[in-house]
Amino acid sequence: MGKIRIAIAGVGNCAAALLEGIELYRTLDPKEAIGLMHWDMGGYTPGDIEVVAAFDIDARKVNRSLREAILSAPNCIYPIYRDLPDWPVRVLMGPVLDGVAAHMKDYPPGRTFVVADEKPVPVARVLQETGAEILLNYLPVGSQKATEYYAEACLEAGVSLINCIPVFIVSNPKWASRFEQAGIPCVGDDVKSQLGATILHRTLTQLCVDRGVRIDRMYQLNVGGNTDFLNMLERSRLKSKKISKTEAVTSLVPYDLGWENIHIGPSDYVPWLNDEKICFIRIEGRIFGHVPISMDVRLSVQDSPNSAGVVIDAIRYCRIARDRGLKGPLYDISAYTMKHPPVQMRDEEARQRIEAFLRQR
Length: 361
Prior knowledge:
Elements: E1 4-9, H1 13-27, E2 49-56, H2 66-70, E3 91-93, H3 123-130, E4 134-137, H4 144-157, E5 160-163, H5 173-181, E6 185-188, H6 197-210, E7 214-224, H7 227-231, H8 239-250, E8 262-269, E9 276-287, E10 291-302, H9 305-323, E11 328-329, H10 331-337, H11 347-359
Parallel strand pairs: 1-2, 1-4, 2-3, 4-5, 5-6, 6-11, 7-8
Antiparallel strand pairs: 7-9, 9-10
Helix pairs in contact: 1-9, 3-4, 6-8, 10-11
């Protein structure tokens, strides 16, 4: 089936986990390759994904090899596979725009971004020259202008966008229409982890709804120690993040809880946690006879690897869509892999629709 040529915007923890994971899965028997929908998806395996371009703004990554960049500070992932190849890709300077929050400069270099003194490259031209087919957006939360810049570059270059952050592009009707008119399939917005806070909260919420429990109030609190959590200390950058995470859960509830009865979102930065994320979920409600019930759940995960397999599935589905000449938002894979898709679905419904799509030839 050939290679799937991807570009990456933001060579941070998520990119590092993805690339280390792909290299690990090249060495494994398919039966050991856990965390994927399928080892073979439409004729494509994880090893068919090839990085052809990468963009970042950090001085420790720009103009360095991709291998050196993903191992550089402030990246701090749990090691997955360190026998990495020397990919023939150098990280190029992207536009900064609103990609770096002002408060980040107040933290030690090993924990934060160090902006390179370089001129940004013309991203659309690089995408065209490298033959990239899909761009992964891994920019920091709140990077509205920077994400829009990369989306424009995709439209200019004919490249699909998989938008892994909560800036609404694929779920925005105006942007979605532009990708459809350009004949380019896209996936977004804001990636779900394999088993993270959102998918766990959705599952518990759906269980309550299916069993007739009347939910009265709930919260989801998250803490972590990577640059994502440090970036999100700037609350003004969280508007779309809170919308994305909240709607992913409330879309399953057939009644209005009221704004004061639901709180979902990042809560604090704890440096020594590094890439570990700890989530606290509480749901309060009533069962038969209006008798009260409550549940409290604590989940601990390595944040960045938790989304890597999901993104591998999204990449392969997107490439199949390109092979079949589809265009615009890909609703089913977006609903399954993203928190804020154009159309929300129950996860099992989205999975069934994806399987039906894969059976088509």
